[in-house]
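Chapter review: from sequence to fold.
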Amino acid sequence: MSIHEEYDRVFKALASHIRRQILDTLKDQPLTTGTLCGNFANIDRCTVMQHLKVLEDAGLVIAERRGRERWNHLNAMPIQDIHDRWIGPHAAAASARLSRFRQMVEADPKGSAPRA
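The token string follows.
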């Protein structure tokens, strides 16, 4: 699978507010599927398990079998990879532009910045 396909799976998984809520629920500790289903009482168990499958396919959840229980662990590395690839560099570029703009405004004795 290419890196682009991996990113597509992560973005698809993060597109659903329910899946984001599941990830938020797993942020502090792994939970069993039964416990997760109990936290989403307004959704049937089958639907929660379908959402978990999408998250697992995207590498955002790692499932561990312990006897009859399935423990779901958050794997934040795909989100970190997206941050490192897009968010960090774009935020740095935006901050640099804002810094240059501020310097231009502060350097202008009339207080009016030139139009871009």
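Two observations follow directly from the output. The chain has a mean pLDDT of 90. Residues 77-107 form the longest helix (31 residues).
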